[in-house]
Amino acid sequence: MAAEELQRELLKAVKALKGQVINRDSLSVGIDWKKTRTVSTSVSHVKTGGSTKEDMLKIVHQEMANCQLCPLGKIRKNLVFGVGNAKAQIVFVGEAPGADEDEQGLPFVGRAGQLLTDIIVKGMKLERKNVYICNILKCRPPGNRNPQPDEISKCEPFLKKQLQIISPKIICALGTFAAKTLLNTDIPISALRGRFHFYEGIKLMPTYHPAYLLRNPSAKKQVWEDVQMIMKEVKP
Ligand code: URA
Fold this sequence. Notes:
- By secondary structure, the chain is an alpha/beta fold.
- It has one domain: Uracil-DNA Glycosylase, subunit E, CATH 3.40.470.10.
- Helix content is 44%, strand content 11%.
- A hairpin with a 2-residue loop joins strand 5 and strand 6 (202-207).
- It is globular.
- The relative contact order is 0.13.
């Protein structure tokens, strides 16, 4: 067996094992809410009747619903957890909510979101409700400034849980922040895109952020190339 194939098989096995060990008791991201400033009740051991992926996502959502782990918690209108199919084959991960997302509590609902929807619906011929969409940060940075390292480190464990639960076939990292955070690298998106990387055993395709495409429509060609590579990996 060629080394690359062996590595792929090993990653598959690790991923399968990880899927089996996720259960309700492992969902807590280990946050002692009593130690945070404004939240007094712990929801780390919420009980549910079932343990579908949807249930498990709900538990993580509940766990962070009142999050005050970073200063963005104080100024958000709504926490933007994520939306879509808990059993999705593809998860899109963006940077952070903007004004429209903060207002509605949903990811990618503004202008960049409309372009992402076009990529999914017109380009990939999928329904938006059949993929999963979320962000690195769940709360809006003021004035849409870049996420700060401490905000990313506080928020990332929740994203990690979401991705463990959904365990998609492909993660599409939208833009510099998503790609650099998930791949733990400083390599620019222009050099990362166009080929698959791995995040915890899951194939990850970095591509340009839709907001970048609004400013640089000529980069749509490269995004289309990335999207086609993703489509080859997923079942119709
Ligand atoms: N940009 C993002 O990265 N995420 C959103 O949800 C909206 C815009």
